[in-house]
Amino acid sequence: xxxxxxxxxxxxxxxxxxxxxxxxxxxxxxxxxxxxxxxxxxxxxxxxxxxxxxxxxxxxxxxxxxxxxxxxxxxxxxxxxxxxxxxxxxxxxxxxxxxxxxxxxxxxxxxxxxxxxxxxxxxxxxxxxxxxxxxxxxxxxxxxxxxxxxxxxxxxxxxxxxxxxxxxxxxxxxxxxxxxxxxxxxxxxxxxxxxxxxxxxxxxxxxxxxxxxxxxxxxxxxxxxxxxxxxxxxxxxxxxxxxxxxxxxxxxxxxxxxxxxxxxxxxxxxxxxxxxxxxxxxxxxxxxxxxxxxxxxxxxxxxxxxxxxxxxxxxxxxxxxxxxxxxxxxxxxxxxxxxxxxxxxxxxxxxxxxxxxxxxxxxxxxxxxxxxxxxxxxxxxxxxxx
Length: 386
Fold this sequence. Notes:
Elements: H1 2-13, H2 16-32, E1 41-47, E2 53-58, E3 61-65, E4 71-74, E5 86-89, E6 95-99, E7 102-106, E8 113-116, E9 123-130, E10 134-143, E11 146-157, E12 161-162, E13 165-166, H3 167-170, H4 172-175, E14 188-191, E15 194-197, E16 205-211, E17 215-221, E18 225-231, E19 237-242, E20 246-252, E21 255-260, E22 263-268, E23 271-278, E24 283-287, E25 290-295, E26 298-302, E27 310-313, H5 326-340, E28 345-346, E29 356-358, H6 378-385
Parallel strand pairs: 11-14
Antiparallel strand pairs: 1-2, 2-3, 3-4, 5-6, 6-7, 7-8, 9-10, 10-11, 12-13, 14-15, 16-17, 17-18, 18-19, 20-21, 21-22, 22-23, 24-25, 25-26, 26-27, 28-29
Helix pairs in contact: 1-2, 2-5
């Protein structure tokens, strides 16, 4: 980070056309050779009817689809600055990011993410999920000594947005539980009728993984990481397979499938059965009727099995931020895009294509929002740093 800051300071001090051009050439070369960690897709959040991912959570921030086949960059500086923050999309297409107990809500155009601190006084939100009809909120209670390890689930009707705020989330204590959001010394599933404990001992972390008609699927972290099934009727808790890397579960064909450290498990009756072979997927998501699996090679749409069926996204398609996000996202794009060699190149319009040669001129900054796909064009940078 210090090296990048030094280069940007040098760039600001460059005077004249020749000095700026020379500095830009040097900066591109230095960033492209930085060799940071390979970017990865962490979660597919939404997809269109054809099965093309339209919003993804990645190791460098959020990525949104554009009409021309490329993808735009929604940088972490739009919210808390954490590129790995959890995110979700509401049934009406809104986007929210959860980080450090706060919720950042995007307006309908995703031009701005606004922090919603309604619940922050009492609870730190950790995760949110929806089945399209209800939402599920995971939070930690704030106590005088800090954050308690107790985890709380609350669920009700899907939130309706009013003036950019989800009414049920904003007033979850009143609209769902008829009073303060219930707290429990150990993890509990709460709804208006009361709370039911999910565990006898505190756990370090709970993550919502999948919502079925009859069950919630969670990943609980104690000494091990295990998949939990919570029956939405009886509230019975079933502890499933454990491992370091847990992906899913998702429905593939007629089966519910889970990956544990690369080994596939299929749900047969009330048990999990291990299947032969291993899979190197880094994410596994069921979204809008499609199942997606990710690897360092890209995102693939699956068709009934865990084998790759169709390539639907590669980072070669990722362009820079929108022009309107230039001030907030410029340094993020230079940092992450520079490490990956994207800065100053043209994004491919298909997952099979490769990145094009250096972009040229601010004229490349069109309605696609590719202005920082051409971020190191001399005139643009001179405007930003003058």
